[in-house]
Amino acid sequence: MMCFKAAVPRRGLLRRVLSTGLPTMWGAVAITFKLTCPLAQENGLGARVVTSAVFFAVGTGLIIHVRRALLRELRQARQVAGAAQSALLRPLPSRIDGLGVAAAQLSADRGATIGGDLYEAVATEHGVRVVMGDVRGHGLAAVGTAAAVLGSFREAVHDEPELGGVLRRLDRALARHLRERAERDGTVAEEFVTVLLLEIGRDGELRGLNCGHPWPYILSGPRVEPLSCADPLPPLGLFPLPDEVPVLECGHLLPGETLVLHTDGVEDARDGRGRFFSLPEAMGKASEAPPQSVLGTVFTELLHHTSGTPKDDVALLVLRNDRQHQPTPGARGTARPATTYPQPTSHL
């Protein structure tokens, strides 16, 4: 262990020496040739050709060295970003309490691997609880906000018996994070998060809370329908939550049915002619496929629609009920209530 710790700084020191020493050496070779080599002092055509060749070789070597150094730094930055993404959006298992699971994120910036989209699915004693969200904005600030919301969710889903309690925990965590960031940076940012919370019971019963996020779709055989048509609450961070947070009863996810959660970057994607991407049509091509195939089909169709250049970050989470037992008698898998949330009062 001692030898390993000693080797790490030595390796870093060697890289720094090479990064500064090689260009210096090449420059010294060029200057020495020009000042001391008799051939470089002559004005004939042959001498000029040789001198030009020497300086061309030195310049090419410098360019190659700089390019390699930049590529090495880019690889290191991407490795750090990948590690941060793995810590923020932990890879989900392929099965959670009898549900098939697949999830992925696609960044609009090819040079970035993390953003403000967030998702998680956790098996608890209250059922499988799922969150899908989208932080306003991009960059490290959005990543920090997503981390604060996700961290609070991962604790609250086990502690809170009701979804309303989970949502209030997320709201408090977001407010605390924004307040601490304002005290640290001296600036107040208008930042909000859209959040969708779902709870899937052992009998497939679906219960949900929606704060400004697109409702998911449910795939039942060839049919593709929205899970609910209820008006969502405002995103977290814009208004205080109302005193009563009504949880919507969204029917049941029957065995064989699939639930697809997404961020608004999916349905807002446009092609070169300004036409929006049809998510239901894309899902219909893989309605009875396993979650990973649904995920792959949607991303393939999305990239084809946008010519490989989506303008916004995209996140998808697919859940399929692979359980064998049936839900409670009389439950309808695609029955969705037309409940509306009470509108909150602005305190601004």
Number of helices: 8
The CATH class of the largest domain is Alpha Beta
* Shape assignment: elongated
* Poorly predicted residue ranges: 1-9, 329-348
Can you tell me the number of structural domains?
Answer: 2
Write out the strand line-up for the largest beta sheet, numbering strands in chain order.
Answer: 1-2-11-10-7-8
Beta fraction:
15-25%
Sheet with most strands: 6 strands, antiparallel
Estimate the mean pLDDT confidence: 79
Question: Separation of termini?
Answer: 58 Å
Question: Considering DSSP H and I runs of 4 or more, what fraction of the residues is helical?
Answer: 40-55%
Report the count of strand segments: 11
CATH architecture of the largest domain: 4-Layer Sandwich
Radius of gyration: 28 Å
Order of helices and strands: HHHEEEEHHEEEEEEHHHE
How does the helix and strand content classify structurally?
alpha+beta
CATH H level of the largest domain: which superfamily? Answer: PPM-type phosphatase domain
Report the CATH topology name of the largest domain. Answer: Phosphatase 2c, domain 1
Question: What does this entry look like structurally?
Answer:
The radius of gyration is 28 Å and the shape is elongated. α1 (2-36) packs antiparallel against α3. By secondary structure, the protein is α+β, with helices and mostly antiparallel strands. The N and C termini lie far apart (58 Å). Mean pLDDT is 79; it is low at 1-9 and 329-348. It folds into two domains: 2-79; 92-321, PPM-type phosphatase domain (Phosphatase 2c, domain 1, 4-Layer Sandwich), CATH 3.60.40.10. 44% of the residues lie in helices and 20% in strands. The relative contact order is 0.12.
